[in-house]
Amino acid sequence: MNNKKVVIALGGNAILQPGQKGTYEEQLKNIELTCLEIVSLVKIGYKVVVTHGNGPQVGNILIQNEKGSGLVPQMPLFICGAQTQGMIGFMFQQTLKRMLGKENPCEVVALITQVVVDKNDNAFTNPTKPIGPFYSKEKARLAMEEKGETWVEDSNRGWRKVVPSPEPIKIVEAGIIRSLSEQGVLVIASGGGGIPVIEEDEGNYRGVEAVIDKDLAGLRMAIDVGADSFIILTDVSSVALNYGKENERWMGSISLSEAKKYMEEGHFKAGSMGPKVRACIRYVEETGNEAIITSLGNAIKAINYKAGTVIKPL
Ligand code: ADP
Ligand code: MG
């Protein structure tokens, strides 16, 4: 039995597969599949902290807000983010507890998590993260004029609102997450990259209209809880060089310096693999531990170097 701590960052496909509508039943079924691997890690002694994305879920809540706005007040984006932490966290908490069963008395808890960002972060003057559905040019124009929002046209699919994606600086609840994990509690935290907040003065936080990248928030978590390894689970089994090209090459173990070189050479797309590799590089640099990128069903294989891309501190 080992006693290692691991932070697992789950991608969108852990909760919703492409093409699905996003019903409760669909999401629960995906979560059940995802939880099998997490439970296996717990059973071999790992202390696990889980974090997850929330893109489609927050998108749906934004639609509910807008369609219901004649009846009930709309909520700010950070409240919608908090809602997704509650709903996704609940599904994981319930499923994990049930799967762990009576023979494994590990407690499971989902924690509403705030992540501090810098109000002077450049992201606030340069919003880049698309959220919610696509709309007409007219609707985008009105929102830009009346509300001062930023909207962008997305390759003929329509117009989409974009919000700032600032760097995560500090997880407000990091201390309690760490101590729960050390007590053997399985924690689900910082969903959707965490609820972005600005620290007004010490201990006084205010929610802001932004979205934190969940891979970078996962990195913050892995460092703050003192994880022995950081695992990012997504929809590809490993990381490729020349991704999507004829000379594509999937990678197993690579060194930190190789990872940095490939990053500079532009092998990893911004907004998808880019932030994952960047988060792993920073984790390995800061901790001297290994970081892993693989697909949902491959976590156990990857910690045994039998799958995935492992970035090593060489
Ligand atoms: P998640 O929801 O897990 O964060 P993303 O879609 O953001 O998933 O990132 C995973 C995607 O990154 C893959 O499906 C793949 O299309 C894309 N990708 C971009 N560059 C690479 C690369 N070099 N190697 C592998 N996948 C890549
Ligand atoms: Mg992503």
Can you characterise this structure?
This protein has helices at 24-43, 55-67, 77-100, 137-147, 174-182, 214-224, 256-264, 273-287, 299-303; strands at residues 5-10, 47-52, 108-111, 114-116, 129-135, 150-154, 158-163, 170-171, 186-189, 195-201, 204-207, 229-234, 239-241, 249-251, 253-255, 290-295, 309-312. The chain is built from 9 helices and 17 strands. It is 37% helix and 25% strand. The chain is an alpha/beta fold and 314 residues long. Strands 3-9-2-1-12-16-17-15 form an 8-stranded mixed sheet, sandwiched between helices. A 4-stranded mixed sheet has the order 8-4-10-11. Helix 1 (24-43) links the parallel strand 1 (5-10) and strand 2 (47-52). Adenosine-5'-diphosphate is lined by residues 11-12, 53, 234-236, 239-240, 243, 267-269, 272-273.
Helices and strands, with pairings:
Layout: E1 5-10, H1 24-43, E2 47-52, H2 55-67, H3 77-100, E3 108-111, E4 114-116, E5 129-135, H4 137-147, E6 150-154, E7 158-163, E8 170-171, H5 174-182, E9 186-189, E10 195-201, E11 204-207, H6 214-224, E12 229-234, E13 239-241, E14 249-251, E15 253-255, H7 256-264, H8 273-287, E16 290-295, H9 299-303, E17 309-312
Parallel strand pairs: 1-2, 1-12, 2-9, 3-9, 4-10, 12-16, 15-17
Antiparallel strand pairs: 4-8, 5-7, 6-7, 10-11, 13-14, 16-17
Helix pairs in contact: 1-3, 2-3, 6-8, 7-8
Bound molecules: adenosine-5'-diphosphate and magnesium ion.
